[in-house]
């Protein structure tokens, strides 16, 4: 093949190159059109939701998107509704969950990545099997246990934190994958220099683990904002114990949707904006985590 | 114990091992005898109650009329249409009890406790005369007789007092008959034989372990946990073992034994409600709670396993200390023990909390829910008002025969099969459409010469950040009958009537898959971008030189590489999609309703229901058929485990995890 290319005159080669370039331009134009279409499709619902949150003339679902009368009434209404309570609930849950869950996940993944002990493989196998059980079922008993502890309904927040954090050790895969890539020779060198295993963790590994720590914090923080089913179960129709997902979901029920639809949109915007801004700032770490995690399974 | 160890320790025994074992047996027999003696003579004997019976026969068959019970002020006590059992028996009885406050004080009883002691019954089939049986039970026959007599008297005066209890003309006076003591107390206390056997088993374990130990310190540690460590100066370890022993004995005596005793029956004492009288408070006498019994019973079994393990560790540590002492080395001090927790034993410190959390909040509930499948726990048999109990394999035997109690006419299994088929179909499409389209988008963005890569990527990534419940709920409303999509299409004149996105089974299934693509592509784009970049560029270079067109490059290089690397991800994503509750529940809620499908407790399965959403519906639906949900859960686990097992072992990328290190 390379021989033929060498012996061929420069003229046809040039032509072929031009043709390639032309087809590449056509191809690229098609790809641009495609990507732009995709971007629009992906953004449309979010643009719509923002637009509708400013609609003042009616509160129910309508067939048009751009409001006829613009205003902040929906947002103002939110502040006089239970939404504030739900928002605080969710924020507190997310804050505590993200700190405690990160601690637990890092403990678990670091240990499974770095130490070799008798129970290591069995432990990982057990967790793999546990992951195959539908978690939905555990809700019934967890609800009863939380109820006995007095952590349901209006006191749902500590209950939710407890449950989110307690079982979070199962999600160690991504960060274990990360720790696996830090060379063990680093630990060994530090151990030879007399560092304890805990010192190895604090002084050597943690400073190198900023990406995975941020990734874990970020995902743990975002989790509670979207959890509907367990939060609904634990708050059990008590408004004071709901999180934003449960509260806003109820606003779309048959008997409320006509009064609350635009407020739902406004609430959605207020929930999505801070989370999205935070996410975009830390996007780099998220991307690293997701990519790394998928490869190592 | 290895031969070598035995060899080194044998000379120190004054008696041969067999003598130690025989001595242990003597100790066991002594323990059993002691237990027998305690049970028979020292432990307070418990007796079943003496029962004093009175029968009241009321000659009136018009029992609606019986409801004219008036209180002291002459107001009708609003019991007119109450069930006859409440109207006739409970209300007057309650009144009688309240009137006898002196009686209560005399015997240190509260109203609730007294009512708990008084049982009444009446014969459903008896429509002519109303015969009410009142049984008063106390362990002291004299008290039973006294209270029984007074209540009967009181009841008699209420029922025959025309001013209090007018009713329609009664032809004959009501008759009251005293049966007196109908049942003498029977010894029920602790069953001596059972306790002797339990004591024997524990003693056998302890003394046999003791027989194999050498040295008095190690022998004593078999009874007083931690003694071997304590006596050698390892205070911290010793104290921890000892404390554990105290806690273990305390828990077992205080609670554990009680829960274990009730575990086989899941409770026998029903909760009783006593009728309202004239605006008075309802009195409830709480009985057993099957749910708690099952929960704490399982916890106690876990606890016993932990005790056995700790006991084993205790003996092991004792031997270890002994060995080190014999070798003339220094034992670890408490400070060194603590230090090793951040050093050699650091993994134990790190794992303690996560593993404890998983045990209590993941493993326990799973074991519990598996056990539920062998009971009849449901909304009706909720464990409080109606105790639930073990049903063995009944739920599994009935899988094929369960039919609807609602409008549906299909059997459980037929509907289960349909939902399973859709679940698998959904998981397949949801996984692979996302996978290939996501990869395609990633490749498009990565293509040479495309500008604004970062912008396109950012737009897609941004959609990940928005909590799913917002995007899914909003999109679900967009495709509503009156939603924006339908309005837009109608305004443009492209359709006449609204498209049935959520109302028609096929449309709904199609729509959820499409919307799931919208949800999933950004993730897949992110994941595949990284991997695509890792494919060595010279592979493509040589392929191009060999004249491979882009399609061939894709199928021969890109795809095999991607499948190799992302094999495990595809598997977890497939099983994850099978249990993808959020997308289905928030988009369709499982609807539209499946016609003629099996329905449990008024909740019928929908066409887009996955097994997991169906299970959820059954759980929260009217009848709360927890046992059916549990059976479905177990079946889901089996299906998912089977798929995982079959696929996982065949994955080419099932590589050695040590490769990277």
- Largest sheet report of chain A: none
The CATH class designation of the largest domain in chain A is: Mainly Alpha
What is the overall silhouette of chain A? Answer: globular
Distance between the termini of chain B: 37 Å
Q: Largest sheet of chain B at a glance?
A: 4 strands, antiparallel
Radius of gyration of chain A: 26 Å
Highest-level CATH class of the largest domain in chain B: Mainly Alpha
Spans where pLDDT lies below 50 across 5 or more residues of chain B:
1-11, 60-89, 166-173, 275-280, 656-661
- Greatest interface: A-B, 99 and 104 residues
CATH topology of the largest domain in chain B: MetI-like fold
List the domain count of chain B as a whole number.
4
State the shape of chain B. Answer: flat
How far apart lie the N and C ends of chain A? 41 Å
**Mean pLDDT figure of chain A:** 83
Helix content of chain B: 55-70%
Structure notes:
The complex is a heterodimer of chains A (297) and B (661). Chain A is built from 15 helices and no strands. Chain A is mainly α and 297 residues long. Chain A folds into two domains: 44 residues; 215 residues, MetI-like fold (Orthogonal Bundle). Chain B has four domains: 58 residues; 134 residues, Alpha-Beta Plaits; 180 residues, no CATH class; 186 residues, MetI-like (MetI-like fold, Orthogonal Bundle). Chain B contains 24 helices and eight strands. Chain B has a four-stranded antiparallel beta sheet with strand order 2-3-1-4. A two-stranded antiparallel sheet of chain B has the order 5-6. Chain B has a two-stranded antiparallel ribbon with strand order 7-8. The N terminus and C terminus of chain B are likely disordered. Classes of the chains: A mainly alpha (297), B alpha+beta (661). Chains A and B meet through helix 2, helix 4, helix 5, helix 6 and helix 7 of A and helix 11, helix 13, helix 15, helix 16 and helix 17 of B.
